[in-house]
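--- STAGE predict ---
source: upstream dedup step, 1 unique chain passed
mode: sequence only
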Amino acid sequence: MIRPDGYLLDNRQAEAGERFTALAKLFDPTTFRHLEGFGIGPGWRCWEVGAGGTSVVSWLARKVGPTGKVLATDIDVSWTGSAARPPVEVRRHDVGKDRTPGEGFDLVHARLVLVHVPDRERALHSMISALRPGGRLLVEDADPGLQPLACPDEHGPEQQLANRMRQAVRHLLADRGADLAYGRTLPRLLREAGLHHVQADGSFPLASPAGSVLESATIRQVRDQLVKADLVTDEDIDRHLANVASGTLDVATAPMISAWGRKA
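--- STAGE serialize ---
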């Protein structure tokens, strides 16, 4: 199914829940380490952009407590709605199109969101404009171009098929306007937008059980599109999913670049 808004992955599909759970296991420790470093605490006002699942939203809510606020937005809030209780507000919002849903935030965070947004420049400036002076922005996004392989150790036909499958998914993403080299640009973009004390690092999970869950869920979610585009066959997909389920593939995710800075 091709979404009318152009996004490849449809959160209305059952596999979306599997993806959110796997992404949380893979990347929550990195995200929480950065947020802890900002000194987040009671009373903070936070905007979680493109929230998707609830793991980051719930963590933020515990940190800010009853005197704080967490605004969780996404184009589809079906998976986030369960977190909608004080101090969390859940709102449907497209960061690349809609007006900023408020201002004066102490923290704005987006993870694996902007790479998929057609108007990334507008989205980034909207997020920065929502910060109070001294507020923090943390943007974390994938950079599949830095490491394009599902199996960097391509030592057999199973790994070769996995890498061909990853190339096919990248083709679909590029066709939808995703910038597969966006992550590496984040430090420069944050500096050019006027943020101070900009820093960045990267996370590259390899051979994680959660990575295999993510791979399987993603392939099943875009299966029809892969076949329709004549990128792979149903037989290829069945064989790859069986290989992933066997536990013998060391599946890698695309590197996630985390970049952060402070508003003057």
